[in-house]
Amino acid sequence: MEISSSHIRPILMYGFMCFRNWQLCVNDFTDLLKQEPMNAAARIYRGRAFSKMKMWNEAVEDLSAGIHLNPTSGEAFYYRGCILRKLVCLSFQLLKVKQENFNDVKITCRARQ
Question: Residue 77 above 80 pLDDT?
Answer without folding.
Answer: yes
